[in-house]
Amino acid sequence: MSTSSSTLKALQTSTLTTLLSSPTQPWKILIYDPHCRSIVSPLLTVSGLRSRGVTLHLALDSNRGSVPGVEVVYFVEATESNVQRIISDISSNLYTSDIHIFFPSKLPRPLLETLGRGLHSLNAVNRVKTLQDVYCDFRCQLDLFDLMVPGSFKRSIGGSESEMEQFCTLVSSKLLSLLSVLKIVPIIRTPPNSCSSLIAKKTSLLLKDHPITGPRVPLIICDRDLYPDGLWWHESCYLPLLYDVLDGKGEKVGNVDISSGEFLREYGYKSFPDVVEGNSTVLKGIEQSEARLRNAGEVSDLQNAVDDLPKLMEKKKEVESHTGLLQAAMEKIGERQIPMLVDLESRLSSSSDKVASEITEILKGEGSREDKLRLASIAGLKGFSSSVVESWFGLIPDSTAYLEFVMQRRSLKMDVKPSPPTSSHGGDLLAGVGSVLGGVGAKLIDEAGRKVERLKGKGGMRDFARSVASVLEGGEKDGEWEYWDCKLRNPLVYDVGDRPGGGRGKGGRVVVLMVGGGGFGEFGNVREGLGREWDVVYGGTEIRTAKDFLSDVTG
Amino acid sequence: MQVSRLNDLHTFTSSLPPLTTSPPLPPPTPAETLQQLKTFHTHSSTLSLKISSTASKLQLLSGVVKKKSIFIDDSKKVNGMVEEIKRDLENIQETMGSLDETLTSARTSTTPSTKDHSLAILSTLKTTVTTTATEFKQVLLERSESMKESGDRKKKFGKTGGLAERGKLIKMQGIHLTPQQLSSTPTGLSKRGPHNRLGNDNLPRPVNNVSSTVNIGNDGVMNVEYYNGSEEGRHIMTPLEMQVMEASSEQTQLLIPSGGEYLQSRAEAVTQIESHISELGSVFQKLALMVREHGELVERVEDNVEDARDNVEGGLGQLMQTLEGLRNGRMLGLKISAVVVMFIIFFITFLA
């Protein structure tokens, strides 16, 4: 497992900190564009920026007043308009002191020349004290990384050859940022003849020009198109479920900021009933110690109380906000009958007539169109017969586009065969249900128990998680998938039969990039599927929810 | 991986032809503004230097305090350090006052951005001072704790004759001295009495202690003052100051008749320092809360922007609704007047 100092978030934060510590004065102004703001905002709060000496943080395109004599740090995307804006700032003499300019990715030569010409004409070249490509062009969203390539699913499956080329170049340059922040030399594995393998090729070439020193770590790049079901599954673990039912956006679910906190770290990917139980235990513990503090008689106790109480209250506040989220989520879960869907989806691999008829029942029922589409699409990609799948989509209004999508993927995926159900997780976790519900009097728990009992421990490993595990542990997929190693003399030669064993084996860090969009549920599934010994760094060209991806498919 | 492109830039710009015309002169910044900002920056940087030196002294002090031993008598050293830190904190207070003044006087002539910038600096410094002061408090607490412990040890191994009665006396005086403390913790002082019934050589001189508490009081005053940045803060804190003064005068009064009761008076001093410390504790807590609340106002970078966008969207929605309402109103008016006209025509044609 990773220590807290080597998590992606910590590493990216330290990158940003070095960037902010380049001015010589203790106080400085930070100016960013929306792109870079989204890189900074999950990592540094306003007080975080303050403690690093940033007094003002302003948007590049806003109407800024002049602050003479203060050093200014520009952190903007390398685009023509941004460069022009910087030049116009200098010409209107907004900031009279030194200027530091940072770009999150490589500043192309033509833009460098534009900047040079502009500065030269203003006789201000020497005022620019720093000009750097930082290579940190991705954002952290909770535990995931987001390469911020909008519309990546469409771009990864369609378009002309030059468009595809452009897309892969973009993704590989951002991937380079990720690798340089993580300080790892990847051993890339991709499914054969896919968009990912093109990205892998480009990344290997980039790594030749920009060598990174660090440990060798397996990097799995995969196309969303090969595992289109990944984002649609109904989830049983906490964080993905929250995002699904409460329409989480960025780091906020509703109005609650969930980007940090002990509780989430511990319970983020536990199954929902566990979280409910954990929530009430933690809350009770807090209340007990609070009561103890309030009844303290000794003066020394009182002094302790004065010190401890704010901390305790803060913790309580956090846990209570999660209680609120849990309750809100429970309502929705009951409404949308998610436990039933999760249960059914976990039995899909058997593709028996009984399951098929159950699916038909649900599709005929009350549920929302979105849930039905998700269920039908996932089931459609399994081993059911075409006529059954068609009849399912017939039950959902306006679903021809999805039917087409599913049928197309079915024909590509000729090797669909009913895989044995993986019950390694299901069984023993299910046994715990009784203990969760037994003996706890709290109303919350009872209610939760009734509603979400069936959520417990369902799911198991899905196709993508299985493939990842197979690649990492030398299974069947390990032989199939391509192998790119920039350390080899000729990185473009792959799959020569006698590959070195590096990157395989049990445990360690593994980076997973989903081209076309990743999601919390898939991350949770891969993480739980691989087990504790693997430290999974997961992300996508963008982060999409099930709803987003439904529109991606047809849009 | 950070790749500097400065060299590329310089190589490129040096290849450009030298400027034939001088660049358009940028609008000069008013010299006064610049001067004010400079003064502000000098002040703030000296201030942050002072704060950091105080913090390092504090670290030393806490190191000394943590080395508890009955064999080493370091009370003099500790007292000296406490004095020094107190002075430093006072000094910081003064500098902050002048900084505040600079800012107030500059407010009229500077741009809003410059003002924001300066305010941000000031609030950061305030936060740092508060943290430092809180640490100071904690060190003092630890100190009194260790004094108590060593007192207990001495009691265990030393003589114990007739001390219980003295303890009672001290207890009563302690209550008398700090009524506030008593009201907040009814049982606290009386329970603590026994620990303190015995004086020992490690205890600092009473007078010394009192003066230190007074200064801690000042320190608390200072923080509140800064925080509010106004006259009010001073007024809020005056009662505490007065109380501290009262306590100290009472202390001297008590000292005079009790000449022989040396041990007792020092035990009393410990009681006092403790009560003041815990009083201060609540003040600090308030301060820390205030600072934190301030931070929470603008917790996330993108929040304001998103809120603004939401507000604009909401406003647009309201406008659309109003427009719709107006349209409906107009339609209604038209209909009614049509009906009226119909009636008039009806009356004219059939009844006239």
Description:
The complex is a heterodimer of chains A (555) and B (352). Chain A has 555 residues and is of the alpha/beta class. In chain A, 50% of the residues lie in helices and 13% in strands. Chain A has helices at 8-20, 34-40, 46-51, 80-91, 109-121, 152-157, 161-182, 195-209, 238-245, 262-267, 272-294, 299-336, 338-346, 353-364, 369-380, 386-394, 400-412, 426-431, 433-437, 443-452, 463-472, 476-480, 520-530, 546-554; strands at residues 28-32, 54-59, 71-75, 99-103, 128-133, 139-141, 144-146, 185-190, 216-223, 252-253, 256-257, 482-485, 508-515, 534-540. In chain A, helix 4 links the parallel strand 3 (71-75) and strand 4. Chain A starts with 7 loop residues before the first helix and ends with a helix. In chain A, 46% of the residues are buried. Chain B is mostly helical and 352 residues long. Helix content of chain B is 82%, strand content 1%. Chain B is built from eleven helices and one strand. The interface between A and B is large, with 72 and 65 residues. Chain B: It is found in: Membrane. Chain B: Keywords: Coiled coil, Membrane, Transmembrane, Transmembrane helix, Transport. Chain B: Residues 260-322 form the T-SNARE coiled-coil homology domain. Chain B: Residues 1-29, 180-214 are annotated as: Disordered.
